[in-house]
Design brief:
Layout (H helix, E strand, L loop, with lengths): L6 E4 L8 H10 L7 E9 L2 E8 L24 E5 L13 H6 L3 E4 L21 H10 L3 E6 L3 E2 L4 H5 L6 E2 L2 E2 L7 E2 L5 H18 L3 E4 L20 H18 L4 E4 L9 H4 L4 E3 L6 H11 L8 E5 L4 H5 L1 H7 L5 E3 L8 H17 L7 E4 L11 E8 L4 E8 L6 E4 L9 E6 L5 E5 H6 L2 E4 L5 E9 L1
């Protein structure tokens, strides 16, 4: 990872639409304004991370991007399960033992619910009663039903490509190939946009979809004269066409929750974010990568509208609090696991983590986020921590992580805690409680012990 030097600038308090332009301008030269802000630009996982901090107060700043009116509120901050195994299905009829025990509120049926992408129909072999039958069982079990949708691509032998080859993006006379060898569509084409929009609405209505997970390469540039008659290629028209589909889908189905999983393919921008209710941080399972993405992205996007997803590669990983808590900070907590293979200990451990997540998720609706180890970004070494404090609720939550490090305890100062007042601090893992005034918690801090590397502690802080 390469990190640029910190740059002190005078940041102008601007309306959200001007935010991106001002950040880009600030990278080149200082802007005269009201309040000195330190900006650090770094690159991780192919994403540009921008960190803004008020030098006078030391408080991190989380700007609100345009399009915030789509904000999901608490209904978007759900513990969910992304189901990828099509050969084994959990018992979705109520009461569903696995989901009742875990407390899952969202079931996302992932890729491969279709025979061919571009048919917009259930795979009759896997789902003889249709995806709508799965949706009914999910809702009967008390969960929302989510569905994977990569509407910008299609199999070469799909109904869409067979009937409308003119919708396929072209370069140098050849079809553009996207993820997994599929044909990419060009949304600069108005007939293509209309076709896809109608098919999307049909799938949502027929399957009873509450939550649409948009994925894959959705913005493809074509040099076909029919797609970009006024230019050499369709780079502008394709983006505008993609935005148009999302805007009109939202207008037609205003209760449908739109979740963007395309940032790894360049989708982590304000325009894309403004047309979804929430956005994936990074396409990576590893706990450190998820925390690293959150560390940077939540300085630009509200934490209630960003999320990671997590998957353990061993039974110990899946039940570890270090794994689950890495994704349980802000938006939804999504597990990509085969829970039918779990033992009782893993179910109990995951249920505990989901309960903690539900207890704390409302803090992010109005809370302020602070890095407990200034200058430290998440990686495999040292300690790190993050703290959210809700002034309205008079309580907060801190997560502290020990990575590769010889120290079995560190002193943690609760940055962002109002110094005037007394507080109760509860250690979830240690099972201990202390009482202290705000100034001592901010200036002197508290000892956080963790006996082993790759473990974590949660501190619940409330006014006394």
């Amino acid at each position: 990872m390469a990190t640029a030097a910190a740059l002190a600038i005078d940041f102008v308090a601007a309306e959200p639409p001007a935010l991106e332009a001002r950040i880009d301008a600030a990278a080149q030269s200082a802007v005269i304004g009201n309040g000195v802000v330190e900006m650090t630009i770094s690159w991780q996982q192919g994403l540009r991370l921008v960190h803004l901090k008020n030098l006078a107060t030391g408080v991190d700043w989380i700007p609100q991007p345009p399009g915030y009116a789509w904000g999901p509120g608490p209904e978007g901050m759900l513990p969910g399960l992304v189901w990828r195994r099509d050969d084994i299905w959990p018992d979705l009829a109520p009461p569903s033992r696995e989901f009742v025990l875990l407390g899952v509120e969202l079931f996302i049926l992932d890729y491969d619910w279709f025979k061919r992408l571009g048919d917009f129909a259930s795979d009759p072999d896997r789902f003889p009663d249709g995806v709508e039958a799965v949706s009914r069982k999910v809702k009967a079990a008390g969960m929302k039903f989510g569905l994977w949708m990569g509407f910008g691509q299609a199999h070469a032998d799909s109904a869409l490509v067979r009937e409308h080859p003119e919708f396929v993006a072209m370069r140098n006379g050849q079809p553009v190939t996207g993820g997994w060898g599929m044909r990419s569509l060009c949304f600069a084409s108005e007939p293509c946009r209309e076709y896809v929009l109608e098919k999307l609405c049909g799938v949502v209505d027929r399957f009873g979809v509450d939550w649409l997970k948009t994925d894959f390469d959705l913005i493809t540039t074509s040099d076909s004269p029919t797609h970009a008659p006024q230019a050499t290629d369709s780079r502008i028209e394709s983006v505008e066409g993609y935005y148009s589909i999302l805007e009109r889908l939202h207008e037609r189905r205003p209760k449908l929750y739109l979740d963007n999983w395309t940032p790894p393919m360049g989708g982590a921008d304000f325009g894309n974010f403004a047309r979804h209710h929430s956005m994936l941080l990074c396409d990576d399972y590893h706990p450190t990568a998820v925390r690293s993405a959150a560390h940077g992205m939540t300085h630009l996007f509200p934490p209630t509208r960003t999320h990671g997803y997590i998957r353990g590669f061993s039974r110990a990983d899946e039940r570890a609090s270090y794994t689950n808590r890495s994704a349980a900070f802000g938006g939804g907590l999504y597990l990509i696991s085969d829970i039918l293979q779990w033992d009782e200990a893993t179910i109990a451990a995951t249920k505990r983590e989901i309960e903690l997540f539900k207890r704390d998720r409302s803090l992010f609706l109005d809370g302020e986020i602070h890095n407990l180890f200034p200058g430290k970004q998440p990686d495999h070494y040292g300690w790190e921590g993050r703290f959210v404090w809700s002034p309205a609720q008079g309580r907060g939550m801190a997560q502290v992580f020990r990575n590769h490090d010889s120290r079995d305890r560190v002193r943690v100062r609760l940055r962002g805690l109002p110094p005037d007042g007394r507080y109760v601090v509860e250690f979830v893992e240690a099972g201990t409680t202390l009482r202290a005034d705000g100034r001592s918690l901010v200036r002197e801090g508290v000892d956080v012990p963790l006996a082993k590397p790759f473990t974590t502690e949660v501190l619940h802080v409330r006014t006394e």
